Amino acid sequence: PCTRNCPAHIDIPGFIYHIRSGNLEAAYRKIKSANPFADTCGYVCPDENLCQKECIRGLIDEPIRIRELHNYVTETLGYRDVIEPRRLKGKKVAIVGAGPAGVTAALKLIESGYEVHIFDRREVGGIPIAEIPSERLPSEAVERDIAALKRPGIKVFEGKEIRSLTELEGYDAVLLAFGLVERGLKIPGADLTGVIGPKELLRSAREKKTDFSGKRAVVIGGGNVALDSAFVLKEKGAHVLIAYRRELKYAPSWTKERVLTFLKGVEFLYLVSPLEILGKDRVEGVRFVRMRLGEADESGRPRPVPIEGSEFIIEADIVVPAIGETAPPYFPEVERDRKGFILVDERGRTSKEGVFAAGDLTGEGGTVVEAVAQGKRAAHAIAEYLGRSS
Questions:
Q1: Are residues 174 and 186 in the same domain?
Q2: What are the FAD/NAD(P)-binding domain coordinates in residue numbering (predicted)?
């Protein structure tokens, strides 16, 4: 059951057996061959919601701490190259986006004998290298995962933004695996100095460029990005409040991350929604309205409804709107759903022949391990497609 509930389908009983028998090399190969971002996932995989949740040992006493064993193996051995490339077949695949989905697909495609060119407007590694707080995920872990790209048959073009299929003519297949853009607040004052997007905040924190000592910060949202933003602000000296429009039990964040944020000293305010960010030239406060929960919406959660006459103001110097993301409007040649995500079938194929998509931009790759699973799925489908077209 644990392996079945792992999106990357790591042979969990197998690698634990090898640990018990003292063969860490074999355990490492089991883990890394199934999950190219194994070092990263050893730190950030939400195992309590996935494999550990299905651990049958929990029926006896408590479930095995699978992620911790996984992390023990990858940290003990460091980097090992488990990729087994085949002779190149003369066909090239373009991958747009060098996060977990794109990197995973590239490594699986090189094992199938296909040359890969990866394009990313920033650096290789995606969200793990740029936006997950270093207190949760050491950069060295991500760097070990992406080191496997340094091999014949894979070329990486950093700082190269691609927005249309016309820029990728000459490739035999294309995989779209780029990241999302933030949904900004559409209220008065959203453009004031002191309103900071979570991506900018988290990236600057990873680069050690921030100091918020003594600042009053309000983070708006209830997901993991909101919690990461609050964590970073608190680490950098701010007094932090998270404001969320529903009750805690309806927040999309993981329980483990909420606990860590509580313990960090972050305050939480529920059933409130921002109406206006106040200030002349820069943020001075936020006007909120209290909410009550109404009928269920399309997400299955109760819809927040404003309570008339319940407005109030919270003083603030910084506002971080962590209210969700959507796919940027690049690659107009492929169909999208009404939320802007790229439509794919069960194989990762888009509406355009020879074009595939994986990761966050499909609306499905919300965690690193889920993005890895989508990258593997897309690589398999691309290899099958190129094999048929030979």
A1: no
A2: 91-375
Among 301, 144, 152, which Cα is nearest to 223's? Answer: 301
- 238: domain range? 182-325
User: Cβ atoms within 10 A of the Cβ of 259, count?
Assistant: 10
> Which residues 6+ apart lie within 8 Å of 273 measured at CB?
243, 245, 288, 289, 291, 304, 306
Residues 241 and 313 in one domain: yes
Report yes or no: 255 and 285 within 8 Å, Cβ to Cβ.
Answer: no
Reported as type and span, the H/E element at residue 85 is none
Q: Are strands 267-270 and 239-244 parallel, antiparallel or unpaired?
A: parallel
Please give the chain's pLDDT, 390 residues, in tens: 899 999 999 999 999 999 999 999 999 999 999 999 999 999 999 888 889 888 888 778 888 999 999 999 999 999 999 998 899 999 999 999 999 999 999 999 999 999 999 999 999 999 999 999 888 899 999 999 999 999 999 999 999 999 999 999 999 999 999 999 998 899 999 999 999 999 999 999 887 778 899 999 999 999 999 999 999 999 999 999 999 999 999 998 888 888 888 889 999 999 999 999 999 999 999 999 999 999 999 889 999 999 999 999 999 999 999 999 989 999 999 999 988 999 999 999 999 999 999 999 998 878 999 999 999 999 999 999 999 876
Domain count, the chain: 3
